[in-house]
Amino acid sequence: MAIVSRIAGAAKAIYRYPMTSLWNLTKIVLLVGIVVILAGQVGIGPVDTSPGELASPLADAAANATDPVEIDEQRVERLVQEGINEQRADRGLTSLSSSASLQEQARLHSEDMVSHEELAHDLPGSATEERLTTANCAAGGENVAQTWYQERVDTAGGERYIGDEEELAESLVTQWMNSPPHRENLLRQEWSETGVGIELTDDDKVYATQLFCG
Fold first, then answer.
1. CA–centroid distance for 81 within its chain
2. What is the DSSP letter of 113?
3. Across residues 191-210, what is the average pLDDT?
4. Closest CA to 4 of 21, 23, 22, 28
5. DSSP state letter for 189
6. What is the C-alpha separation between 178 and 92, in angstroms, rounded?
7. What is the pLDDT of residue 157?
8. pLDDT classification of 38: cutoffs 50, 70, 90
9. What are phi and psi of 101, to 5 degrees?
10. Chain centroid to CA 82
11. For 57, what's the count of Cα atoms within 13 Å in the CB-facing half-sphere?
C-alpha cells in the first residue's frame, strides 16, 4: 500500500513539477522491480521451473517399478520335486516318482491353507491321514511351508529376494532342508512317490504342500 501511495503522489508531482518528480518515479519503479524479484525468489510469486524439476518423486518411482511377473505354479511344483530328488541323489537315495493323486491332494491342501490363511497340516474337514487315504497311500508323510514371492525374505543364509520360479522352488527346498523334521521326512529311504502343490495368494504369499508315499 505504501508503494501504491508513493506512486500516486509521484504522479501528482510530475504533473506539477515534471523534471524533478520524474527521477522520484524512476526510483519507485526500480524499487517495485526489486520487490517483485525478491518475492519470486522466496516463493511468494510465480517461479519458472523446468519440467524435470516439477517431476514427482513418487511418479518417478512408479515409472521405474517393474510390473508384477505372473508365476507358473505348476513349474514351481516340478522344480521343487527336482530339487528334492537332487537332495536325495546327493545322499545315495532313490528319486521320487510323481504321483497324480498325491499332487492333487497336495494342491487341494495348499488351496485350503490359502482359504484359511493358516499354515497347518490339519484344517477343518481336512487332515494329512485323510489326504493320504484319498490318494490310495497306506503309509506316507507330508511337509508344508509358507514363504513370499517377489519379496525380500529372511532365510538361514541371509536375506534374499524371491523373484522367479527357480528362486521360489529353491527357497522352499532350502527351507525344508534347514528344518530337521522336514529334512528327515523328505530324505526317508522308504518313500517312492511324491506330489507337490503350490498356491499363491493375491498379496504374493506362497503356500506349499508336499506329500510322500512309500
1. 26
2. H
3. 96
4. 28
5. T
6. 19
7. 65
8. very low
9. -70, -40
10. 26
11. 0
CA 106 from chain center: how many Å? 26
How many other CB atoms are there within 10 angstroms of residue 182's CB atom? 18
Cα–Cα distance measured from residue 48 to residue 54, given in angstroms and rounded to the nearest whole number: 10
Residue with cell 528362486: 167
Is the Cβ–Cβ distance between 175 and 113 less than 8 Å? no
Question: Per-residue pLDDT tens for 187-196?
Answer: 999 999 999 9
For residue 59, give the amino acid letter: A
Q: What residue type is 153 in one-letter code?
A: V
Q: Are strands 193-200 and 205-213 parallel, antiparallel or unpaired?
A: antiparallel
Q: What is the pLDDT of residues 100-156, one digit of tens each?
A: 999 999 999 999 999 999 999 999 988 999 999 999 999 999 999 999 988 887 766
Residues in Cβ contact with 104 at an 8 Å cutoff, skipping those fewer than 6 apart: 135, 195, 197
> Alpha-carbon distance 171 to 157, whole Å?
10
Quote the pTM value. 0.67
Q: Which three cell numbers stand for residue 127?
A: 487332515
Q: Output DSSP code: residue 123.
A: B
| Strand extents, DSSP E, the chain | 97-98, 140-148, 151-155, 158-162, 193-200, 205-213
Query: If DSSP states are collapsed to H, E and C, what string results for 5-66?
Result: HHHHHHHHHHHHCHHHHHHHHHHHHHHHHHHHHHHHHCCCCCCCCCHHHHCCHHHHHHHHCC
What is the rounded average pLDDT of the residues 173-200? 96
- Supply 83's cell numbers: 530339487
Q: Are 93 and 186 contacting, i.e. CB atoms less than 8 angstroms apart?
A: no
